[in-house]
Design a protein that fits this description.
Length: 308
């Protein structure tokens, strides 16, 4: 499997690192517009290979898409990240142009590629790729829910004082501070509902901490996070590479599912060799349905800022 990562910045390099360490891809190409930057990151990562025990070949290139030819999966991380106090939506002006140009260049050289969109505002960027490339919807996947769910599990484990491996939970909806819908009513600790252990108030706090998970880190770091985003992407790529049919909440183009049409937003999907193999429909509570509807309205508002 050949994987291209566009953007050798914080998130792109973390994606390349985790994909290599998991050792399921033969080749990872990292591309950046900044002269020599991707080459440097790739060389540094390759010098960890003997230490970390992987055989994946990582190469870096400056803006030459011919080197990405024949990629099975490409990850779009190019664009600006937010600074403290910014929302993801504020990035649309610069990132839309970058994401549109990058997806078109990728497809020129890899017509069969599966695209994973990471750049923010991610649901709108995924919608943009859908509208401008004409690719079948199974081959355009937005990464947000896998990360938000990992943050949800971290916060649940903290509240439960339990190991993270005892906890399961999922976040659907838009990848924004207000749009995320942590499914607290469905979350479990060793298959027992977490509401058996945590008060309604504590669960509401877990939800709130999850939704501002990215903003909390941006405030601490001065820029947005990269380890967990890279790990989330690498798990998704592994599910595709190994045809795992593994469930992740991902931003997918909806045609009636969850009562929504003509929008990309986070819903549970199965990832396998064809990308999105299936959109999984789960029964939501009335409160979750209302939150999902509100979340979709927020995503549509941002989509309205696109010039398609
Ligand atoms: N979806 C998510 O869950 C999630 C999580 C974290 C970050 N993000 C987003 O990912 C993006 C990248 O974040 P980061 O922290 O890695 O930023 P960064 O600034 O560290 O890296 C971005 C890289 O993109 C490169 N770039 C810019 N334009 C390019 C182009 N046209 N072609 C190729 N490369 C180009 C830059 O040179 C830079 O190296 C941001 O938009 C951020 O908001 C999304």
């Amino acid at each position: 499997m050949k994987v291209t990562v566009v953007g050798a910045g914080a998130v792109g390099a973390s994606c390349a690192e985790y994909i290599a360490i998991k050792n399921f891809a033969s080749e990872v190409v990292v591309l950046d517009i900044k002269e020599g930057f991707a080459e440097g990151k790739a060389m540094d990562l390759m010098q960890t290979a003997s230490l970390n025990g992987f055989d994946t070949k990582i190469t870096g290139i400056t803006n030459d898409y011919s080197k990405t030819a024949g990629s099975d999966v490409a990850i779009i991380t190019s664009g600006i990240p937010r600074k403290p106090g910014m929302t993801r939506e504020e990035l649309i002006g610069i990132n839309a142009g970058i994401v549109k140009a990058v997806s078109s260049s990728l497809l020129e050289h890899s017509p069969n590629v599966i695209l994973i969109v990471v750049s923010n505002p991610m649901d709108t960027m995924t919608y943009l790729v859908h509208k401008t490339t004409g690719l079948p919807k199974n081959r355009i996947i937005g990464m947000g829910g896998a990360l938000d769910s990992a943050r949800f599990k971290y916060r649940l484990a903290e509240a439960l004082e339990a190991p993270i491996s005892d906890v399961d939970g999922m976040v659907i909806g838009g990848h924004s501070d207000t749009g995320m819908v942590p499914l607290t009513a469905h979350a479990t600790r060793n298959s027992i509902k977490v509401s058996e252990f945590l008060s309604e108030e504590r669960l509401a706090q877990v939800s709130e901490d999850t939704k501002v998970g990215g903003a909390t880190l941006t405030k601490l770091l001065g820029t947005s996070a990269w380890y967990a985003p890279g790990a989330a992407v690498s798990s998704m790529v592994q599910a595709i590479a190994c045809d795992q049919k593994k469930m992740f909440p991902c931003s997918a183009f909806l045609e009636g599912e969850y009562g929504l049409n003509d929008i990309c937003i986070g819903v549970p999907v199965l990832l396998g060799k064809n990308g999105i193999e299936k959109i999984v429909k789960i029964e939501l509570t009335e409160a979750e349905k209302a939150k999902m509807k509100e979340s979709a309205e927020g995503v549509r508002k941002t989509n309205g800022l696109l010039t398609l």
